[in-house]
Write a sequence for this structure.
């Protein structure tokens, strides 16, 4: 059996929705999967990301682990595997490359089991990451609101307003989510929590119905300032874009900058030296699998 999994990148948080909001973006990893009688072979091809050096190509490979996890859960045996990963999502930049790999593996497992992805797929994917924002976006596409009840992860998928044209500014610098989560405080002042509740609620409306409210709605007091010392150039670009009226945020745990424009470009006069800037449309589909018998 052979199948091809196409999985989108994602941006998380969108400013005020820390560990809650995600959005799928039109930049895709593609994984060709062949189920064989025995053995494991993983080929990793750089389809533009340019930084695949550290990727493991054994049982620790994230796609393999997620695929095996899903197949185990679904009761399907996969004796041998050949994977060819065409990676386009840059690693350690805040564009959800790990979540995309996990979602690709889980979607492949579901396809092998002849099942369509469901809430258990989200559960499996989110368990790898500890939060569901990126994983839900890569699974379902569009704009997602994720939440957790005890150990259980949930997400609702919404259609973002069609006039939103995300632009990303990707620096060469990498950043570790684990390290920048370590910069966050254990508790925040009640005033900041109340500020965030209002902005997050407003953001759902702004992202789906009234993009002109996005500058206010994406204001954050829970994570970006605490993480800023880890990537000063990112913090500077977010601030400068916002001063120009562009709703800009750190993408996920950074260091990529996300600008939720309605023009597809950043304004003249904003300094983007050192960043690779491109428009990435919202991916409305989420992970997609085609099979060959
Ligand atoms: N919500 C997560 C964070 C996204 O900000 O740490 C990164 O995976």
């Amino acid at each position: 059996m052979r199948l091809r999994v196409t999985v989108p990148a994602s941006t998380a948080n969108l400013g005020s929705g820390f560990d809650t909001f995600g959005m799928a973006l039109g930049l895709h990893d593609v994984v060709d999967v062949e189920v064989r009688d025995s053995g494991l072979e993983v080929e990793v091809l750089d389809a533009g990301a340019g930084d695949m050096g550290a990727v493991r190509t054994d049982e620790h490979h994230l796609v393999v682990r997620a695929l095996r996890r899903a197949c185990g859960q679904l009761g399907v045996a996969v004796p041998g595997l050949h994977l060819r990963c065409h990676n386009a999502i840059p690693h350690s930049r805040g564009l959800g490359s790990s979540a995309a790999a996990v979602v690709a593996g889980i979607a492949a497992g579901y396809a092998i089991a002849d099942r369509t992805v469901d809430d258990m797929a989200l559960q499996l994917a989110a368990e790898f990451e500890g939060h569901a924002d990126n994983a839900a976006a890569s699974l379902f596409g569009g704009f997602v609101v994720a939440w957790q009840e005890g150990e259980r992860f949930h997400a609702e998928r919404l259609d973002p307003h069609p006039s939103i044209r995300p632009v990303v500014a990707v620096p060469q610098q990498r950043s570790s989510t684990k390290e920048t989560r370590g910069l966050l405080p254990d508790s925040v002042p009640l005033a900041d929590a109340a500020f965030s509740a209002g902005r997050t609620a407003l953001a759902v409306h702004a992202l789906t119905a009234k993009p002109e409210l996005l500058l206010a709605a994406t204001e954050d007091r829970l994570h970006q300032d605490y993480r800023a010392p880890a990537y000063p150039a990112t913090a500077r670009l977010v601030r400068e874009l916002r001063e120009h009226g562009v709703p800009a945020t750190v993408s996920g745990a950074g260091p990529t900058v996300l600008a939720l424009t309605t023009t597809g470009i950043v304004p003249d006069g904003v300094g983007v030296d050192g960043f690779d800037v491109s428009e990435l449309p919202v991916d409305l589909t989420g992970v997609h699998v085609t099979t060959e018998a």
Notes: The chain has nine helices and eleven strands. The chain has two domains: 2-159+282-292, 165-279.
